[in-house]
Structures are given as C-alpha cells and as structure tokens.
Amino acid sequence: MDDSVHFWLDFWNVLTLRSGYNATLVILGTTSLGIASGIVGTFAVLRKRALMADALGHATLPGVVGGFLISLIFGATGPEILPLLIGGGCSGLLGIWAVQFLVRHPRIQEDAAIGLVLSTFFGLGIVLLSVVQTSVSTQTAGLDSYIYGQASAMTRVDVLALAGISLLVVLISILLRNPFGEVCFDADFAATTGWPVNRIDLFMMGLVAVVCVVGIPAVGLMLVVAFLIVPCAAARLWSVRLTDVLVISGLIGGISGWFGAALSSSLPNLPTGPVIVLVAGSIFVFSLFIAPRRGLVSSQWNAYCRNQRIAEDHALEHFIEHDDAVPNDGLSVLFSVRGWSARKINRLMRRLQAKHFVQRSSSIWSLTPKGRSRGLTIQRNHRLWTQYLISHADIAANHVDWSVDQVEHVLSEDLVAQLEDQLRSGAKS
Prior knowledge:
Elements: H1 3-15, H2 21-46, H3 50-73, H4 81-104, H5 110-135, H6 145-148, H7 156-175, H8 177-185, H9 187-192, H10 197-219, H11 224-235, H12 242-266, H13 272-290, H14 296-321, E1 325-327, H15 331-334, H16 342-354, E2 358-361, E3 364-367, H17 369-392, H18 400-407, H19 413-428
Antiparallel strand pairs: 1-3, 2-3
C-alpha cells in the first residue's frame, strides 16, 4: 500500500477514535482542553490579558518543579500529575498576584511588570529544574515533558481529571459570561453598576491559571498560552458578538485539539503540543483570509463593491443634473470632474445598463425609471446631509462637500428620516 494512502487511513482511524485506547484518551483530553482554552482565552484576550496569560504559563514552572520535589519527599518514585498540577497552580496564582502588586504599589507599568514576573519565575524554574535533574536524575524521567508537553503519556486518570476540570471551567465561564463580559468591555462602567471588578478580574485570571495548569501535560507550559489566545483571535474574525465569539472560539479550540492530536498520533516523532498549536494557527490564517466580514479577501471584495456602488451613484447624480440624458460623446465631459478614464466610464456604463439604471438609444444615454428613482434618492441624501452638517455641525459650506461625498451613499432610510425630522423641527424653531 502506498505510504500516503496508509497515512490517511491511519489518520482517519485516529480521528474517528478507532485507533486504540491510548490514542482515544489523548484525543478526548486535548479536545476538552481545547474547548475550555478557547472559551476562557476569549475573556483573557478581551480583557487585554493575553500577556498576563503568557506570564502565567511561564510562572507555573517553578511550581511544577516544587511539586515534584514535595512528591519525592512523600515517597513518589517519579513525576505524578496531581502534585505537579497543584504546585504549578500555586506558582501561577503567585505570579498573578505579583503582577498586580507591582502594578498597584510601586506603580510599574503593566507590560513591564508582566515581563519582570515572566522572566523571573521562568528563570527560577529553569534553575530548579537543572538542580533537580542533577541531584535526582534517576527519578526525573518525564519531567522535561511538562515544558513541551507529552499528551501520549497521559493515563486514563489524567484524561478524566483534564476533561472534568475543563468541563467545570466551561460551565463557570458560561454562567458568569455577563459579568465577565461587562468587565472585559468596560470595567469602569461595570464598577459604577456595582460589579466587584477587581474580584471578577482575579477570578477570571484564576480560571486562566487553571486551564494553563491542566494544559501543561498536553501542550506544555511553553505553548499553553497559544492554546488560549489563538482560538479567540480567529473567532473574532468571524463575529463581534460575545456569545458567538465564545462558541466559535470553543469550537476552534476543540477542533485544534482533536485534529492536532490525531496528526501527532499518525506522524511519528511529532510532539502533540506543537502540532495542536500549528493546527490552531492554520485555522487562524484561514480565518484571516476567508472570514466573511473581517477577512482580508472579503474586506477587499467589500471595499471593491462599495467603490463600484459609489461610482454608480455619482454617475446617476450627474445624469439627474443633466436632465436624465447625455449623448455618448458627452460622457467624458459629464464625468470630467471625477477624473475618470474612458475605459472606466465604458465599464461603468455597461454595469449601469446591466442593472437597468440607464438605457442607450442610438447615441443617447438616458436614465430608466429605476435609475431616475435611485438618482433622486442619492441627490436627496446629498442635500439632506449637506444641510445637516451646515446647520448642526458648524461646518463651513465650502468644506462640506468632501464629508457629504463620503457619507451620502451609506445613509439608511431610518437615518434619512431622522435627518428630515431634525431639519424640519429646526426650521420650525
């Protein structure tokens, strides 16, 4: 059998949970972690705590090593997940407290405080790890995996603990999404409405710390921050509503964990954590180009369509100003104020004709009833907006044309009605 065919069959079996008990455990664990990371990471990103999450991930290292040493004292023969996670959690929370202390009391800038805590805690962790490996090298097998992750080494108990904690984090995040959202979007307003902003902020980062700690065995403390940030960054390209972003981010995180673990299992000698992060990064790049509203392709296409529509509106306005009809050889004169080339004018007239805005009879271009109606609407919007800016915005009449030209094409019917009402009431007073 061809190697590529064998790979895809193996990958499909792993993806559909038919490749053995251990691979199924890994996929279930990383998928649940991805969902939790995507949802919790959304609040961290919206709260502008992405760097805090990075510092938190690095701050767990001395706690992991400390938890290992304590477990040796109590008779452990090697790294055990529970004491390592407890130690990492305590160290991460200490890191959060250290950042907040440095920001509030010595008045150090937040980015500087994060950098200080990140480098100090991670440096301490590396030193402790080196000392431990030198002193008790026979018992440190697998300890390095907590830096880079080793999902394949997770046991049934590890996966159940990971899935349970991830589910709990997801439920808490969903139940508290309203106060979390208010603090993320406008902390000052949340404080005025009675929300304890500092406590909510601390609790939010505590959830981030929990996800960081439980994610260490799967993706490692070096990459767990990417698992928190990348799904949210991709989700925000698809929607701006908090609920939608939470759902999409959770889906992206879950899919990344699922596909990443399957790829890692199918390809030899590839660590699970980096592969998961690469899958999440690939989804982000795809979203960056393809997302319907904020993607690069759609943004360029929307801008192109908007410019085409504006050019069509300008053409219809000029036709209205010249009694609805213009000879073919007069088009260049008609549009000379726009500086359009003959080629652009020809393309424009073909589009207007295809949309039944204009018609051609012999050598005369004229407006159709549909085109005249559209032209009169644009002309009315132009005059309304001009009068509004002059009357209510104190803009000089000789400076108002540019502003009007940018806005008149996107005025909704409701806004036009409001402008008419305001101008009418202003004229009466």
